[in-house]
Amino acid sequence: MKKTSPLSQYQGAFFIILAGSAFAGVNAFTPYVASTFSLNASWIALYQYFFALIVMLPWLLKSGIGKHVKTDFFWRHFWRVILAVIGVHFWIKALTVPIPIGQGLSLLMISPLFVCLGAVFYLGETISTKRSLALITGFIGALIILNPWSDSFSYVMFFPLIAAFFWACHTVMLKNITGKDSALTIVFYLYILTLPFNFILAITDNLTQFSTFMWIKPNNTGLWYLFLLGALTALGQWSLAKAYSAADATYIQPFDYFKLPINVLLGYIFFGWGIDGLFLIGASLIILATLYLTFGDKPKLLK
Protein backbone atom coordinates (compact mmCIF):
# COMPACT_ATOMS: atom_id res chain seq x y z
CA MET A 1 0.00 0.00 0.00
CA LYS A 2 1.48 3.34 -1.02
CA LYS A 3 1.68 6.26 1.41
CA THR A 4 -0.55 9.13 0.37
CA SER A 5 -1.42 12.50 1.89
CA PRO A 6 -5.01 13.38 2.85
CA LEU A 7 -5.15 15.69 -0.19
CA SER A 8 -4.14 12.83 -2.50
CA GLN A 9 -6.79 10.62 -0.95
CA TYR A 10 -9.45 13.29 -1.52
CA GLN A 11 -8.24 13.64 -5.12
CA GLY A 12 -8.43 9.87 -5.60
CA ALA A 13 -11.99 9.79 -4.25
CA PHE A 14 -12.99 12.73 -6.47
CA PHE A 15 -11.58 11.18 -9.64
CA ILE A 16 -13.10 7.74 -9.02
CA ILE A 17 -16.52 9.40 -8.58
CA LEU A 18 -15.88 11.48 -11.72
CA ALA A 19 -15.02 8.28 -13.62
CA GLY A 20 -18.21 6.60 -12.44
CA SER A 21 -20.23 9.67 -13.45
CA ALA A 22 -18.66 9.72 -16.93
CA PHE A 23 -19.40 6.04 -17.49
CA ALA A 24 -22.93 6.59 -16.17
CA GLY A 25 -23.34 9.20 -18.89
CA VAL A 26 -22.19 6.62 -21.45
CA ASN A 27 -24.72 4.14 -20.09
CA ALA A 28 -27.52 6.69 -20.31
CA PHE A 29 -26.75 7.94 -23.82
CA THR A 30 -26.12 4.53 -25.40
CA PRO A 31 -29.78 3.35 -25.43
CA TYR A 32 -30.83 6.72 -26.86
CA VAL A 33 -28.20 6.60 -29.62
CA ALA A 34 -29.11 3.01 -30.51
CA SER A 35 -32.84 3.69 -30.84
CA THR A 36 -32.65 7.16 -32.41
CA PHE A 37 -30.02 6.42 -35.06
CA SER A 38 -30.74 2.69 -35.58
CA LEU A 39 -27.24 1.57 -34.65
CA ASN A 40 -26.44 -1.88 -33.25
CA ALA A 41 -23.92 -2.59 -30.51
CA SER A 42 -21.03 -3.29 -32.92
CA TRP A 43 -21.23 0.08 -34.66
CA ILE A 44 -21.71 1.97 -31.42
CA ALA A 45 -18.61 0.28 -29.97
CA LEU A 46 -16.57 1.07 -33.11
CA TYR A 47 -17.41 4.77 -33.18
CA GLN A 48 -17.30 5.14 -29.39
CA TYR A 49 -13.78 3.77 -28.99
CA PHE A 50 -12.53 5.48 -32.15
CA PHE A 51 -13.60 8.87 -30.82
CA ALA A 52 -12.28 7.98 -27.35
CA LEU A 53 -8.86 7.34 -28.91
CA ILE A 54 -9.02 10.67 -30.78
CA VAL A 55 -9.84 12.50 -27.55
CA MET A 56 -7.08 10.74 -25.58
CA LEU A 57 -4.44 11.03 -28.31
CA PRO A 58 -3.08 14.45 -27.23
CA TRP A 59 -2.63 13.17 -23.68
CA LEU A 60 -0.91 10.01 -24.91
CA LEU A 61 1.40 11.99 -27.23
CA LYS A 62 2.23 14.56 -24.55
CA SER A 63 3.28 11.80 -22.18
CA GLY A 64 5.72 10.44 -24.77
CA ILE A 65 3.75 7.52 -26.08
CA GLY A 66 6.69 6.36 -28.18
CA LYS A 67 8.48 4.97 -25.14
CA HIS A 68 5.33 3.14 -24.07
CA VAL A 69 4.86 1.25 -27.33
CA LYS A 70 7.66 -1.17 -26.51
CA THR A 71 6.53 -4.26 -24.62
CA ASP A 72 7.65 -7.83 -24.09
CA PHE A 73 4.07 -8.95 -23.58
CA PHE A 74 2.35 -8.08 -26.85
CA TRP A 75 0.41 -11.35 -27.05
CA ARG A 76 -0.85 -10.99 -23.51
CA HIS A 77 -2.15 -7.55 -24.47
CA PHE A 78 -3.64 -9.06 -27.62
CA TRP A 79 -5.62 -11.72 -25.79
CA ARG A 80 -6.70 -9.46 -22.91
CA VAL A 81 -8.05 -6.92 -25.41
CA ILE A 82 -10.04 -9.65 -27.17
CA LEU A 83 -11.61 -10.51 -23.80
CA ALA A 84 -12.29 -6.82 -23.13
CA VAL A 85 -13.90 -6.35 -26.56
CA ILE A 86 -16.24 -9.30 -25.99
CA GLY A 87 -17.23 -7.81 -22.64
CA VAL A 88 -17.79 -4.37 -24.20
CA HIS A 89 -20.05 -5.79 -26.91
CA PHE A 90 -22.20 -7.75 -24.48
CA TRP A 91 -22.53 -4.70 -22.23
CA ILE A 92 -23.46 -2.36 -25.10
CA LYS A 93 -25.87 -4.99 -26.38
CA ALA A 94 -27.50 -5.03 -22.94
CA LEU A 95 -27.81 -1.23 -23.02
CA THR A 96 -29.32 -1.24 -26.51
CA VAL A 97 -32.01 -3.85 -25.73
CA PRO A 98 -32.37 -1.93 -23.37
CA ILE A 99 -31.96 -3.35 -19.87
CA PRO A 100 -32.60 -0.81 -17.06
CA ILE A 101 -29.24 0.79 -16.31
CA GLY A 102 -29.34 0.17 -12.55
CA GLN A 103 -30.10 -3.53 -12.91
CA GLY A 104 -27.49 -3.99 -15.62
CA LEU A 105 -24.78 -2.17 -13.67
CA SER A 106 -25.53 -4.13 -10.49
CA LEU A 107 -25.05 -7.39 -12.40
CA LEU A 108 -21.89 -5.95 -13.96
CA MET A 109 -20.56 -5.24 -10.47
CA ILE A 110 -20.09 -8.95 -9.79
CA SER A 111 -16.99 -8.77 -11.99
CA PRO A 112 -14.70 -8.69 -8.90
CA LEU A 113 -16.26 -12.01 -7.86
CA PHE A 114 -15.23 -13.55 -11.17
CA VAL A 115 -11.79 -11.94 -10.73
CA CYS A 116 -11.46 -13.67 -7.36
CA LEU A 117 -12.28 -17.03 -8.94
CA GLY A 118 -9.89 -16.35 -11.81
CA ALA A 119 -7.10 -15.49 -9.37
CA VAL A 120 -7.58 -18.90 -7.77
CA PHE A 121 -7.46 -20.88 -11.01
CA TYR A 122 -5.10 -18.69 -13.09
CA LEU A 123 -2.78 -17.03 -10.55
CA GLY A 124 -2.74 -19.85 -8.00
CA GLU A 125 -4.20 -17.90 -5.08
CA THR A 126 -5.83 -19.77 -2.22
CA ILE A 127 -9.32 -18.85 -1.04
CA SER A 128 -10.54 -18.95 2.55
CA THR A 129 -13.93 -20.12 3.77
CA LYS A 130 -14.95 -16.51 4.50
CA ARG A 131 -14.05 -15.38 1.01
CA SER A 132 -15.93 -18.36 -0.42
CA LEU A 133 -19.00 -17.30 1.55
CA ALA A 134 -18.57 -13.74 0.23
CA LEU A 135 -18.51 -15.11 -3.33
CA ILE A 136 -21.66 -17.14 -2.73
CA THR A 137 -23.37 -14.07 -1.18
CA GLY A 138 -22.51 -11.96 -4.22
CA PHE A 139 -23.82 -14.53 -6.68
CA ILE A 140 -27.03 -14.87 -4.64
CA GLY A 141 -27.42 -11.10 -4.98
CA ALA A 142 -27.01 -11.40 -8.76
CA LEU A 143 -29.62 -14.18 -8.83
CA ILE A 144 -32.08 -12.00 -6.90
CA ILE A 145 -31.62 -9.14 -9.41
CA LEU A 146 -31.93 -11.53 -12.36
CA ASN A 147 -35.22 -12.77 -10.88
CA PRO A 148 -35.43 -15.74 -13.29
CA TRP A 149 -38.72 -16.89 -11.72
CA SER A 150 -40.45 -13.71 -12.92
CA ASP A 151 -42.77 -13.77 -15.94
CA SER A 152 -40.91 -10.75 -17.35
CA PHE A 153 -37.53 -12.51 -17.25
CA SER A 154 -35.60 -12.54 -20.54
CA TYR A 155 -32.33 -14.19 -21.54
CA VAL A 156 -30.87 -10.75 -22.33
CA MET A 157 -30.56 -10.21 -18.57
CA PHE A 158 -27.57 -12.56 -18.79
CA PHE A 159 -25.70 -10.11 -21.06
CA PRO A 160 -24.32 -7.98 -18.17
CA LEU A 161 -23.22 -11.19 -16.42
CA ILE A 162 -21.43 -12.36 -19.56
CA ALA A 163 -19.81 -8.91 -19.88
CA ALA A 164 -18.75 -9.10 -16.21
CA PHE A 165 -17.20 -12.53 -16.80
CA PHE A 166 -15.12 -11.45 -19.79
CA TRP A 167 -14.04 -8.20 -18.13
CA ALA A 168 -12.99 -10.23 -15.10
CA CYS A 169 -10.91 -12.49 -17.36
CA HIS A 170 -9.36 -9.32 -18.82
CA THR A 171 -8.61 -8.04 -15.31
CA VAL A 172 -6.94 -11.30 -14.27
CA MET A 173 -4.68 -11.16 -17.34
CA LEU A 174 -4.03 -7.49 -16.57
CA LYS A 175 -2.83 -8.41 -13.08
CA ASN A 176 -0.22 -10.57 -14.74
CA ILE A 177 1.02 -7.57 -16.78
CA THR A 178 0.69 -4.72 -14.27
CA GLY A 179 4.12 -3.84 -12.89
CA LYS A 180 5.81 -5.15 -16.02
CA ASP A 181 4.31 -2.59 -18.39
CA SER A 182 3.42 1.01 -17.56
CA ALA A 183 -0.15 2.20 -17.20
CA LEU A 184 0.16 4.17 -20.45
CA THR A 185 1.39 1.08 -22.29
CA ILE A 186 -1.66 -0.80 -21.05
CA VAL A 187 -4.01 2.03 -22.12
CA PHE A 188 -2.25 2.40 -25.49
CA TYR A 189 -2.64 -1.24 -26.45
CA LEU A 190 -6.22 -1.32 -25.19
CA TYR A 191 -7.28 1.46 -27.58
CA ILE A 192 -5.07 0.53 -30.54
CA LEU A 193 -6.06 -3.15 -30.53
CA THR A 194 -9.72 -2.45 -29.79
CA LEU A 195 -10.19 -0.58 -33.09
CA PRO A 196 -9.49 -3.43 -35.56
CA PHE A 197 -11.50 -5.92 -33.50
CA ASN A 198 -14.49 -3.55 -33.32
CA PHE A 199 -14.12 -2.79 -37.04
CA ILE A 200 -14.26 -6.48 -38.00
CA LEU A 201 -17.28 -7.11 -35.78
CA ALA A 202 -19.08 -4.07 -37.19
CA ILE A 203 -18.63 -4.71 -40.93
CA THR A 204 -19.45 -8.43 -40.57
CA ASP A 205 -22.48 -7.82 -38.33
CA ASN A 206 -20.88 -9.67 -35.40
CA LEU A 207 -19.23 -12.28 -37.66
CA THR A 208 -22.57 -13.36 -39.17
CA GLN A 209 -21.99 -12.24 -42.77
CA PHE A 210 -18.81 -12.36 -44.83
CA SER A 211 -20.13 -12.30 -48.40
CA THR A 212 -20.88 -8.57 -48.32
CA PHE A 213 -19.47 -6.06 -45.88
CA MET A 214 -21.66 -3.32 -44.52
CA TRP A 215 -20.76 0.25 -43.65
CA ILE A 216 -23.05 2.43 -41.56
CA LYS A 217 -22.42 6.16 -41.27
CA PRO A 218 -24.87 8.07 -39.08
CA ASN A 219 -25.90 11.62 -39.91
CA ASN A 220 -24.03 14.56 -38.41
CA THR A 221 -26.25 14.64 -35.31
CA GLY A 222 -25.61 10.94 -34.72
CA LEU A 223 -21.86 11.48 -35.10
CA TRP A 224 -21.95 14.22 -32.48
CA TYR A 225 -23.72 11.90 -30.04
CA LEU A 226 -21.17 9.16 -30.78
CA PHE A 227 -18.38 11.68 -30.24
CA LEU A 228 -19.96 12.51 -26.88
CA LEU A 229 -19.94 8.79 -26.00
CA GLY A 230 -16.26 8.64 -26.95
CA ALA A 231 -15.40 11.78 -24.99
CA LEU A 232 -17.18 10.47 -21.88
CA THR A 233 -15.37 7.14 -22.28
CA ALA A 234 -12.02 8.94 -22.52
CA LEU A 235 -12.89 11.10 -19.51
CA GLY A 236 -13.77 7.96 -17.54
CA GLN A 237 -10.51 6.22 -18.47
CA TRP A 238 -8.44 9.33 -17.71
CA SER A 239 -10.20 9.81 -14.36
CA LEU A 240 -9.57 6.17 -13.43
CA ALA A 241 -5.86 6.60 -14.16
CA LYS A 242 -5.77 9.80 -12.08
CA ALA A 243 -7.66 8.14 -9.22
CA TYR A 244 -5.37 5.12 -8.95
CA SER A 245 -2.24 7.27 -9.27
CA ALA A 246 -3.43 9.59 -6.48
CA ALA A 247 -4.52 7.07 -3.84
CA ASP A 248 -4.39 3.40 -2.96
CA ALA A 249 -7.01 1.18 -4.58
CA THR A 250 -8.29 -0.09 -1.23
CA TYR A 251 -9.02 3.49 -0.14
CA ILE A 252 -10.90 4.61 -3.25
CA GLN A 253 -12.81 1.36 -3.89
CA PRO A 254 -15.82 2.26 -1.68
CA PHE A 255 -16.25 5.54 -3.55
CA ASP A 256 -16.62 3.57 -6.78
CA TYR A 257 -20.05 2.43 -5.58
CA PHE A 258 -21.37 5.98 -6.00
CA LYS A 259 -21.74 5.04 -9.67
CA LEU A 260 -24.73 2.82 -8.83
CA PRO A 261 -27.09 5.55 -7.53
CA ILE A 262 -25.86 7.88 -10.29
CA ASN A 263 -26.77 5.29 -12.94
CA VAL A 264 -30.12 4.59 -11.28
CA LEU A 265 -30.87 8.33 -11.19
CA LEU A 266 -29.99 8.83 -14.87
CA GLY A 267 -32.04 5.78 -15.81
CA TYR A 268 -35.03 7.27 -14.02
CA ILE A 269 -34.56 10.77 -15.51
CA PHE A 270 -34.06 9.67 -19.12
CA PHE A 271 -36.18 6.51 -19.32
CA GLY A 272 -38.38 6.42 -16.23
CA TRP A 273 -36.77 3.21 -14.96
CA GLY A 274 -37.45 2.70 -11.28
CA ILE A 275 -36.17 0.17 -8.75
CA ASP A 276 -37.89 -2.34 -6.50
CA GLY A 277 -37.18 -4.15 -3.25
CA LEU A 278 -35.53 -7.15 -4.95
CA PHE A 279 -33.10 -4.84 -6.72
CA LEU A 280 -32.11 -3.15 -3.45
CA ILE A 281 -31.58 -6.50 -1.70
CA GLY A 282 -29.57 -7.98 -4.57
CA ALA A 283 -27.43 -4.88 -5.09
CA SER A 284 -26.72 -4.66 -1.34
CA LEU A 285 -25.54 -8.29 -1.25
CA ILE A 286 -23.24 -7.72 -4.25
CA ILE A 287 -21.75 -4.56 -2.71
CA LEU A 288 -21.22 -6.25 0.67
CA ALA A 289 -19.55 -9.23 -1.02
CA THR A 290 -17.19 -7.09 -3.10
CA LEU A 291 -16.34 -4.89 -0.11
CA TYR A 292 -15.36 -7.97 1.89
CA LEU A 293 -13.27 -9.31 -0.98
CA THR A 294 -11.52 -5.93 -1.13
CA PHE A 295 -10.94 -5.33 2.59
CA GLY A 296 -11.32 -8.77 4.17
CA ASP A 297 -8.70 -11.47 4.66
CA LYS A 298 -6.24 -11.36 1.77
CA PRO A 299 -5.60 -14.39 -0.48
CA LYS A 300 -2.23 -16.11 -0.52
CA LEU A 301 -0.38 -17.59 -3.45
CA LEU A 302 0.01 -21.34 -3.52
CA LYS A 303 3.60 -22.41 -3.03
TrEMBL record:
Membrane topology: Multi-pass membrane protein
Membrane among keywords: yes
Transmembrane segments annotated in the record for this chain: 12-34, 40-61, 73-92, 104-123, 132-149, 155-174, 186-203, 223-241, 262-295
Pfam families: EamA
Domain of life, source organism: Bacteria
All residue ranges annotated as the EamA domain in the record: 12-146, 157-294
Name assigned to this protein: DMT family transporter
